[in-house]
């Protein structure tokens, strides 16, 4: 699959990357901890937010949340660029890369569906910061720490998008896909920052969405993995791309 062919696949792969980021946010080991992250990076408690002028504190929470988002996006996009560079370097072995990648996507999908267990991913690897570094740069560093340390939920989805990016000969594709993955993760996080004072009640009411998001990711990655492994990804992608462009 050459670079020219990839141009027509951008829409579908972009949708997959964005959806993966969105569903990653609603996974069981990200969504419940969002309030804690917002408190940690902004230094504002829920009591402060409720008792004092909420409009004043909303801006503080939002700007620190934005710095946090930029932090994890920086790492994800850098990984995407590296993955595409590697894919271009190994472009002569594109067919084998797609089949190996397809197999890995199927395995990750089965992991999400609890069909198989992967002890490496089951072990929670979180880098804890005892104290947040001062200021917006500190929130940026916490975002970097989040992206590097949160393996169980973000890791498999992130790995799947990196696998897709590695099948491209265009180094820009990795930046594009991981940028969209980061955007999918960032949008609900910023919405959560806007609804900071209502977050606990919303989580209590809609928290059940977490168990469905992981299953949807599992089905999505199995379908993509089968298409990769069978070499039908290009055919299906181009047809869906034509439909989306109508």
Automatic annotation (TrEMBL):
Transmembrane regions: 12-40, 61-81, 93-113, 134-164, 176-196, 216-236
Membrane topology type: Multi-pass membrane protein
Keyword annotations of the record: Cytochrome c-type biogenesis, Membrane, Transmembrane, Transmembrane helix
One GO term describing the cellular component: membrane
Cell compartments where the protein resides: Membrane
Alphabetical GO biological process terms: cytochrome complex assembly
Stretches assigned to the Cytochrome C biogenesis protein transmembrane domain: 16-230
Keyword match Transmembrane helix: yes
Matches recorded under Pfam families: DsbD_TM (PF02683)
Main location: membrane
Membership in a protein family: Belongs to the DsbD family.
Annotated protein name in UniProt: Cytochrome C biogenesis protein CcdA
Taxonomic source organism: Syntrophorhabdus aromaticivorans
């Amino acid at each position: 699959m050459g670079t020219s062919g990839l141009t027509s696949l951008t829409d579908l792969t972009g949708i997959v990357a964005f959806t993966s980021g969105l569903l990653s946010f609603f996974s069981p080991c990200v969504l419940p901890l969002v309030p804690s992250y917002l408190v940690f990076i902004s230094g504002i408690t829920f009591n402060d937010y409720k008792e004092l002028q909420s409009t004043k504190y909303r801006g503080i929470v939002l700007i620190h949340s934005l710095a946090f988002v930029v932090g994890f996006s920086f790492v994800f996009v850098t990984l995407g660029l590296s993955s595409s560079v590697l894919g271009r370097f190994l472009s002569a072995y594109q067919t084998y890369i797609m089949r190996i990648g397809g197999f890995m996507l199927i395995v990750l999908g089965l992991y999400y569906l609890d069909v198989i267990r992967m002890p490496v991913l089951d072990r929670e690897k979180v880098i804890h910061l005892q104290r947040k570094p001062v200021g917006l740069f500190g929130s940026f560093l916490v975002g970097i720490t989040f992206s590097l340390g949160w393996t169980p939920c973000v890791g498999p989805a992130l790995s799947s998008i990196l696998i897709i990016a590695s099948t491209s000969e265009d180094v820009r594709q990795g930046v594009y896909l991981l940028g969209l993955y980061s955007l999918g993760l960032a949008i609900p996080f910023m919405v959560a920052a806007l609804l900071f004072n209502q977050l606990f009640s919303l989580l209590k009411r809609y928290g059940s969405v977490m168990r469905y998001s992981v299953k949807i990711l599992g089905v999505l990655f199995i379908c993509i993995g089968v298409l990769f492994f069978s070499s039908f990804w290009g055919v299906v992608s181009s047809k869906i791309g034509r439909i989306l462009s109508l």
